[in-house]
Design goal:
single chain; mainly alpha; 2 domains; 3-stranded antiparallel beta sheet; 3 strands; disordered N terminus
């Protein structure tokens, strides 16, 4: 990196561009526009709200949510469409995780969403219906537990996205100074 315009003093590589005769601007190598970040954050908040609504509906009326789930397990096309929506939701959560309060946790939640979609899709509609029927036979308590997990997950996603990632200071090495 012998380029004098390349700045290595920060964690992110930066470069300078000439904006006017005699003037320069500093840019990040992986800079996103503010509108892209805002759109991604809005999409992730929409995922959180959708998950919260599903959780509340499942707590209030588990049978109605089971009926909707039966509808999208009816044919392979509907199952694949639901899987594509779940994968999209997971990818959105993963992409917006870096600007959240809990980036590692959101990445894990997004990966779990994607894996749920892949598992249901790979197992096929017959196996997915069998799992749904088993859940239904266990009673509404199990369905409500699943709904509570969805509600808590959606709430956590909304919480993590509602604030900015805290600024990290350098780690202190050695003992803390004593104040007298």
């Amino acid at each position: 990196m012998d380029d004098p315009l390349f700045v290595r003093s920060l964690k992110r590589p930066l470069w300078l561009t000439q904006c006017e005769p005699g003037g320069f601007e500093l840019h990040s190598v992986n800079e996103e526009t503010a509108s892209e970040r805002k759109a991604l954050r809005s999409a992730a908040l929409l995922v959180a709200v959708f998950t919260i609504v599903i959780g509340i509906a499942g707590l209030i009326s588990p049978d109605s949510v089971t009926t909707v789930r039966r509808l999208y397990f009816a044919t392979p096309v509907e199952l694949f469409a639901a899987g594509a929506v779940r994968i999209a939701m997971g990818v959105v959560v993963i992409l917006c995780a870096s600007a959240s309060r809990a980036p590692k946790t959101l990445r894990v939640l997004g990966a779990v969403m994607c894996m749920q979609a892949l598992a249901a899709t790979l197992l096929g509609p017959g196996r997915a219906r069998a799992v749904l029927e088993w859940e239904t036979m266990q009673g509404t308590a199990l369905l409500r537990v699943g709904a509570a997990v969805a509600l808590v997950t959606g709430g956590f996603i909304a919480f993590a996205l509602s604030g900015h990632r805290p600024y990290r200071t350098a780690k202190r090495r050695g003992p803390l100074p004593r104040h007298r």
